[in-house]
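Response to reviewer comment R2.3. The reviewers asked that we include at least one raw input/output pair. We reproduce the pair for PRC-barrel domain protein here without editing.
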Amino acid sequence: MVRQLGAQQLIGLRLVDENGIRVGVIGQVYFDDQTGAPRWVTVRRGFFRAGENFVPLRGARPLGDDVQVPYSRETVRTAPVFPTDRHISVAEEDQIYLHYGLAPETAQEVPEQRPYLAPRGKHAKTPERSRTQPTV
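Raw output as returned:
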């Protein structure tokens, strides 16, 4: 769905819940650091809201001029709120997954021949590969 619209075209669209009820307006698009694919959007809910709720794009689809997600309005409205001027941490990402009842992203998208690229989470750091010196 996101690939059809393009990430920048998502900003400003209405986000609707699983029943087509308006939740808010998409404010930001967050990308996976390793794949570059759009992974999350934030939704603004009114003028005086201090933050924006994070919503995963898993299962999202176009519905007319809106974007529909497979979650209830209440689930989105009670989702974690984090500052939108920075990356979200792995711990924050895990809170979002937990809130929506989703399993965190895993290494299944990473080629098996390069398991050192398999840390989960958008902001997981790739561990340095150990370089052992041969003993003589």
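The chain has one domain: 2-107. Strands lie at 14-16, 22-31, 38-44, 52-56, 61-63, 66-68, 81-82. Further pairs are available on request from the corresponding author.
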